[in-house]
Amino acid sequence: MSILKVARMGHPVLRAKARALDKRDIREVTIQKLIDDMIETMTEYHGVGLAAPQVHERLRLFVAALDGRGDDEEEPKPIAIINPEITVVGSEIVEDWEGCLSIPDVRGRVPRAREIKVRAYDRKGERIELRAHDFPARVIQHETDHLDGVLFFDRMKSFETLTFLEEYSRYWAKEN
Ligand SMILES: [Zn+2]
Question: What is the C-alpha to C-alpha distance for residues 50 and 138, in angstroms, rounded to an integer?
Answer without folding.
Answer: 13
